[in-house]
Amino acid sequence: MSNSAPAEFPEITIPDEARADGAYEVLCAALGSYLDEAQLTSIYHAYLFGAQAHQGQMRKSGDPYISHPLAVATILAEMRMDVDSIIAAILHDVIEDTPTEKEQVAELFGDDVAQLVDGVSKLTQIEFESKVEAQAENFRKMLLAMVQDIRVIIIKLADRLHNMRTLGSMRSDKRRRIARETLEIYAPIANRLGMNGMRTELQELGFSEYYPMRHRVIAESVRKARGNRKEIVTKVQDAIEERLKEEALEGHVEGREKLLYSIYTKMQNKQLSFSEVFDVYAFRITVDSVDCCYRVLGAVHNLYKPLPGKFKDYIAIPKANGYQSLHTILFGPYGVPIEVQIRTREMDRLAEAGVAAHWLYKQHDEQDSFAEGRSHRRVREWMRSLLEMQKSAGDSLEFLENVKIDLFPEEVYVFTPKGTIMELPRGATAVDFAYAVHTDIGNRCVAVKIERRLAPLSTPLMNGQTVRIITAPAAQPNPTWLNFVVTGKARTNIRHYLKNLRRDESIELGRRMLEQALKGYSLSLNELSPGYLQMIVDEFRGEKLEDIFEDIGLGNRPAPLVARRIAEAPVFKGDAQSRSQTLRHAFSRYMPAWLGGNKMRPLAISGTEGMVVNFARCCHPIPGDSIQGFVSAGRGIVVHTESCKNVADFRNSPEKWVDVRWESNIENDFPVDIRVDAINRRGVLAIIASAISEMDSNINNVTIDGRDGKYSAMTFSISVQGRVHLARVMRHVKSLDMVSKIVRVKG
Question: Is 568 a residue of the active site?
C-alpha cells in the first residue's frame, strides 16, 4: 500500500451519532469493483479512525462531519483511484481540523497517506497579515505538494467538488467567495489536468452560485428555446447515425445542448446575444481508431456543410492538457450551426478523466498507452513550470497571480526554426515564446523573426507561424515587456530578473550616497570595522549591510540620518563641545542653500545607474542642465532640472533633497522634447525628421497639432547626449526655410 508499512490498527469504537453508515455503504459499492479484500479492510479502518477523530463535529447541514470525507472518497472511487488516495481522502481534514498529528497518520496508514493528507491541509498554525495572503500561501503549499505527488490536487479537486455540491447551507457571502475561487482556480486546474467531467461540473456549480441571477436568466432562456427546437438534437443524431451506416462506419453518436456556463462565457467573450449562442448544439462521435476519426469527419462534412475556418485537428496537435479530438462546426437543419467532436474511445476516456484516467501509481506490470503517457508528460511539464514560477516569485500573492494567468490557455501552435511545435496561450507574443523555449533565451532576446521577417517583440503570434528568436549576450529583460506578455513563466522570470537587477543597483547607489554623506564627518566606510558596521545593521533592523544600502538607494531611509548615527557613536566622540560643532557643521551640509546651509558634496550622475535613478518626465534633464535630485520612497532618486516648476513642490521637504551633478564625458543618450513651428507643405515632416537624423539623433515619437491652414506645431521626442548636442540639432532644424520657430519643451 505504501512505502512504509502501517502499524497494527487499534480497536476503535465510535458512537452511532458519529457514524455515516449510509455514505460508507455508497463508498464500498464503488470500491468493490476494483479493490481486493485487504485494501477494503484498510479503508474501513481509515473510516473508523476518521469518524473518531471528527467525533462531535457536524457540517452546516447537520450531518456528521465524516460524511464529507466519505463523499470525497466516493468521488475518487468513481475515478478508480488507488487505495492510498481513498484513505487520504477519508482523512484529508484530520490534521487541519482535529488534534491528530501527521506522525500518527503515518504510523497507522503509511508515509504516502500522511504526505497526501498534509499536502491537502491548510497552514493553520501561521498568522498572516490578511486573509488573501493566507489563501495565497495555502494555495502555494498545495501546488508544491502536488509537484511531488499529483494525487494531492486530485484529492483537493474532489474535496472542492463535494463542497460545491453541498454549498447551500453556507452564508451567501461565503458561497460567493468559494464559487469565485472555484471558477478562477479549481475548474481551470481540472481543465489543465484534462479532467473534463470534473471541470464542467465545477463550472456549472460555480456559475449558479457566483452569478445566480445570470444563471436563472440563461436557464429560463434555454427552457423557452428548447420548446421551439426540441427535435433538433434527435434529428441530427439520427441523420449522423444513418450516414455512418451508409459509409459502413461504426461509431457511437451522442447529442446534447450546450451547458449554461459555456453559453455564458461565449456570450461574454464574443459579445453575442443569447439567440446567437444557443443555436450551437454539440455532438460527440466515438470510434475505434484514429483512421476512423478522419473517415467519419469526411462523412459528416458530406452530410452537412462545414463552416469555413472552424475545423480544428487536436489529434495531430493535442491541447496543452493532452486532449485529443477533431472539432468541426456544420450548418445543421434550419441553418442552425452544430458542433461535432470526433475521437476514439481511448481519447474520450482521457478527455473526461484526464490525468486520473490511467493512474500512475498502479501496478508496475501494467503499461500506459501512448496517449496516456503523453498526457502525463504534459502534466509533469506543467508542474515543472509551476516549480520554476514559485522559485522566481517574490511572494505567494505574485505566485498565485502568475498561476491564474497560466491556467487560462486558449492554445496557439507555432514552430521553432527546427520544426518543433510550441504550445502557447492565445495572445502570446514573441517574448512569451522565447521564455517557453528557455529562460536564458527570454532574458537575452533582442529581436524576433516571424516567417523570416523581423517583427516587434510584442507581436501576438498566430497558429502555424515559424518563430526565430535573436539573442545578444549582453541583453537583459526590459520592464516594458510586462505590458504585453501573457504567460506566467515569462511574467515571473522578467519580474525576478528586474527585482535582482534593481536590488543590485539600489545597493550600489545606496553605498555611494552613504559614502558621500559620511564625507561631511570626515569619515569613510572603509575606516569602519566590520563589528561596528554590524551594530549599525542591527540598530536599523537589517540582516546585513547590503539591506541598509538598498533602503538608502530606494529612498526608504535617508543617507544623512544613517551617516549621523554612525558619527554619533562613542568611538568617534571627542569632547562634547567639539562633537556638537562637528554635528552642526555636518548637518548644515544637507540643508538647501535657500535655508542658509551649505550644499553637501554632490552625487555624480552618469545616466547608467539603471532603475534606481530616474529622470523626471516633466522636464527631461540632460547633461549640461543644472539639476537637483529628490529621494522618492521606493523609486530611489528622481532627477529634475533646477528650473523645473515641479521643484517647488519639494521646498517644504529639504530632507528629501540630494545634491547631484553630471559625470564628465557622458556618452549615453537622454530623451528631450522639442517643438517645431513649420509652414504646412507637402513632405515637411519627412524633411524635418531627416534633418534631425543627420545630426545623429533618434526620433522616439512625434505629435502634430495643426494650428491653422498655414502653420503646424510638431513636437518631437528625440534622444541627445547633452545640451551641446541638442543645440546642434536645433540650429540645423532652424536653418530649414519652412521652420519659423523651434524651442525645447519643458513641462
Answer: no
DSSP 503-556: HHHHHHHHHHHHHHHHHTTT--GGGS-HHHHHHHHHHTT-SSHHHHHHHHHTTS
Which one of the listed residues 63, 78, 96, 201 is annotated catalytic? 96
- Could you give the CA distance from residue 177 to residue 545 in angstroms, rounded to a whole number? 44
In b/e form, how buried is each residue of 535-569, taking b as 16+ CB within 10 angstroms?
ebbeebebeebbbbbbbbbbbbbbbbebbbebbee
Convert 638-667 to b/e letters by CB count within 10 Å (16 or more is b). Answer: bbbbeebeebeebeeeeebbbbbebeeebe
For the stretch 541-571, pLDDT in tens is: 777 788 888 777 777 777 777 887 777 765 5
Q: Give mean pLDDT, residues 202-227.
A: 88
What span, in angstroms and rounded, lies between the C-alpha atoms of 639 and 632?
Answer: 10
Nine-digit cell at 133? 495572503
Residue type, 280: V
Region 672-688: mean pLDDT is 89
Side-chain half-sphere CA neighbours of 362 within 13 A:
15
460 in Cβ contact with 410 (< 8 Å): no
Reported as a single tens digit per residue, the pLDDT across 273-304 is 877 775 568 899 999 999 999 999 999 999 99
| Residue 318 to residue 371: CA distance in whole angstroms | 10
Catalytic-labelled residue, pool 97, 133, 201, 352: 97
What's the pLDDT at 364? 37
16-211 and 215-354 in the same fold: no
Residue 307 sits at φ, ψ, to 5 deg, of -75, 130
The interaxial angle of helices 37-53 and 102-109, nearest 10 deg, is 160
Active site residue 97: yes
- Taking 3-state DSSP, the helix, strand and coil percentages for the chain, each rounded to the nearest 5, stand at 55, 15, 30
- The answer to whether 121 touches 10, Cβ cutoff 8 Å, is no
Q: Where are the domains of the chain?
A: 16-211, 215-354, 497-662, 670-745
User: Top-level CATH class of 16-211?
Assistant: mainly alpha
- Cell representation of residue 76: 475518487
Q: Under CATH, which number does the domain 215-354 receive?
A: 3.30.460.10
Measured distance CA(558)–CA(587) in Å, rounded? 13
Q: Which CATH class is domain 670-745?
A: alpha beta
Measure CA of the first residue to CA of the last residue in the chain; give whole Å: 73
**Cα separations in angstroms, 163 against 31, 155, 356, 646:** 21, 12, 20, 57
- 593: exposed, middle or buried (C-beta count within 10 Å: 0-12, 13-18, 19+)? exposed
Q: How far, in Å, CA of 255 to CA of 515, rounded?
A: 76
